[in-house]
């Protein structure tokens, strides 16, 4: 009897090349923010300076992500991703070199962050559109699970590597390693041999942008999930990025407690990707939104008062749910949206998530000061859960099946 292939998706050459290149790049993506933070502080920067540099990288992503989706449907996605990798490699190489030479200034790092964020905005929608070109349709969910698994693993491995590199090679050296991972990603992308995809037919940029929105508006399940996703990112996730560390500092053991809680979430997210790889999910969107209901309890979990380990265990469960939500959602878009419009629809996805999240990050602190930390955390989850439940009540969300089962 022939032995079963454990990772059959990796037997497909183009996906294997994409997977290897992105796996290394994901680790670099998790090293760089930590190294940059210590780099800013190491040259005498304040917390406000660090916030400025971070904002300089995130705002361009919000501004350019919709335009990036248009261009990813009008130009070869492979070339767009290659250009993004080369630009980000150059930016990180310069940032790392400036830090190592002791010549870096806050304005320089902020300016480079703007360039990085702009190039990053053009990579993500193109990536979502490219994945189905590298894998057979029957293996698409498995392919997304493998890519999601590497992202989840990088969330655990990357910070540990960053700590070691910062200690032995300075923050600048860690950022140089990130630059090298972009070059590796570009090398594997350049080796892909992809069949041409139908190009968006709209004659102008604005017409193409409107065409992408028409694809969204024509599908109630897409509109509904985008709305619930926006609520999750604006209302719930600030509990993780802003209020969680505050609670850990006030009521737990500070950074060490938050590291344990974050690690618990990371482990859960890896388990979630394993489940996606193993299970078929006849109705992926229904399962995705059901998982979002659980994921939206993150804020209440953080404010539960259960102590470090109790919160970490529950965060592991939400980590499973977050993996299920995002990966099954991405797979459903790739299966049901026409290839010629996939990057544009994905850009609305990124805008509703990463693009809008800074709004929540800004208001979370003032709201918690007015209502109280625990009351705010519980209110965040209440709003998030209600939004996800409303999304699950939409008939098309519950009914949408995998293409091979709906045909």
Topology record:
Elements: H1 13-42, H2 47-74, H3 77-101, H4 106-134, H5 140-190, H6 205-217, H7 220-236, H8 238-251, H9 255-278, H10 284-295, H11 298-302, H12 307-336, H13 342-355, H14 357-371, H15 373-392, H16 395-399, H17 403-406
What can you see in these coordinates?
The chain is mainly alpha-helical and 407 residues long. The protein folds into two domains: 11-197, Up-down Bundle (Growth Hormone, Chain: A); 216-407, Growth Hormone, Chain: A (Up-down Bundle), CATH 1.20.1250.20. It contains 17 helices and no strands. The protein is globular, with a radius of gyration of 21 Å.
Enumerate how many helices there are, as a single number: 17
N-to-C span: 33 Å
Structural class: mainly alpha
CATH architecture classification name of the largest domain? Up-down Bundle
Kindly provide the name of the CATH class of the largest domain: Mainly Alpha
Query: How confident overall, as mean pLDDT?
Result: 85
Shape: globular
- Let me know the number of strands: 0
Order of helices and strands: HHHHHHHHHHHHHHHHH
Low-confidence stretches: 1-5
Q: What level of helicity do the residues show?
A: over 70%
Q: If you compute it from the alpha carbons, what radius of gyration comes out, rounded to the nearest whole angstrom?
A: 21 Å
CATH H level of the largest domain: which superfamily? MFS general substrate transporter like domains
CATH T-level topology of the largest domain = Growth Hormone, Chain: A
Characterize the quaternary organization of these chains.
single chain
Largest sheet: none
